[in-house]
Amino acid sequence: MWYWVFLWALFSSLFVHGAAGVLMFVMLQRHKQGRLISVVLVSIGFLASVTGAMITSAAVAGIYQVAGKNMAPLEALVFGVGQTVLTVIISFSRVLATL
Q: Topologically, how does it sit relative to the membrane (predicted)?
């Protein structure tokens, strides 16, 4: 269970961070250090979201295990992609609060 939820969260997070990385790289291509900053920011963001996805995936799988339920593949997709969507929403809400 944990593995499938984590894989969906990993791939959806990779998609989101890849799109953000391409956007940053394109927007900062003329800046001397912009390309390096883009790579560093995307790497740190991706590693942080993957770490969070591991923890929350293990928690969801643990709850399912204790409840004695089996997880359908569609449920794993919903939980994995849902983790990424919630991470994006929380990240944007923190940025707007600092402005």
A: Multi-pass membrane protein
Residues 6+ apart with CB under 8 A from 76: 1, 4, 5, 7, 8
Tell me: the pLDDT tens digits for 12-54?
A: 988 998 898 888 888 888 888 887 888 888 888 888 888 988 9
The label of the residue with tokens 């791939």 reads 11
Q: How far is CA 21 from the centre of its chain?
A: 13
Instruction: Name the H helices within 28-98.
Output: 34-67, 73-98
- Cβ distance 48 to 56 under 8 Å? no
Tell which residue, 17, 76, 85, 5, has the closest CA to residue 47. Answer: 17
> Average pLDDT in the 71-82 region?
91
Which of 46, 48, 51 is CA-nearest to residue 6?
Answer: 51
